[in-house]
Amino acid sequence: MFTTTTPGLQEFNMVRSGDIPLKLAPYPTLVGTPITGHLVLTTLHTNDAPASLTRLMEMGVDPYIISAAVSGIVAQRLVRLLCNNCKKKVDVPVLSLNKDIRSILKGETIYKSVGCKRCNFTGYMGRIGVFSVLVVSKRIRELILERKGVDEIRDIAIDEGMKTLIEAGAYKVAEGLTSLEELYRVVF
Fold this sequence. Notes:
CATH topology: Rossmann fold
Number of helices: 8
Radius of gyration: 20 Å
GO molecular function: ATP binding; ATP hydrolysis activity
CATH class: Alpha Beta
CATH architecture: 3-Layer(aba) Sandwich
Order of helices and strands: EHEHHEEHEEHHHH
Pfam family, one: T2SSE
Organism: marine sediment metagenome
Number of strands: 6
Protein name: Bacterial type II secretion system protein E domain-containing protein
Strand order of the largest sheet: 1-2
InterPro entries: P-loop_NTPase (IPR027417), T2SS/T4SS_dom (IPR001482)
């Protein structure tokens, strides 16, 4: 457990914490530690990277601390890998695709799961990560200080180059690593 009684911040250069609890009262130093130049890695359960910023505000962390302390957020989901032994090409009309991924999957070969003895008739073997990385830019810091909502933060992050989880997953579908059904199941 990380507490305020930890002697001398100069004794370490990184803190790895488990889930941030819903009530931060016992962990005041944990959130402020990055301001001192120490790296803090932790987990927080949200739908995507931008939602982590607003969740911290909802948990009572002052926006100026979030703005100063958070430099980046990685959202992740695990999708099942298609079995290479039995995956099957499928024709998917472009217009039936989610609008956010049409351009990524247009002209790509899409596969679906089938099932065989090798994969125990599931159509999948193993998993792979789908990641969305939000870099906390100067503009994002301003939005945090202004207590803007998750939608506005997400829009600016996308404008600045953040790929959403659905977009990152669409690249896995385009590579033939997972199915469209699996992506939709995990991300939506």
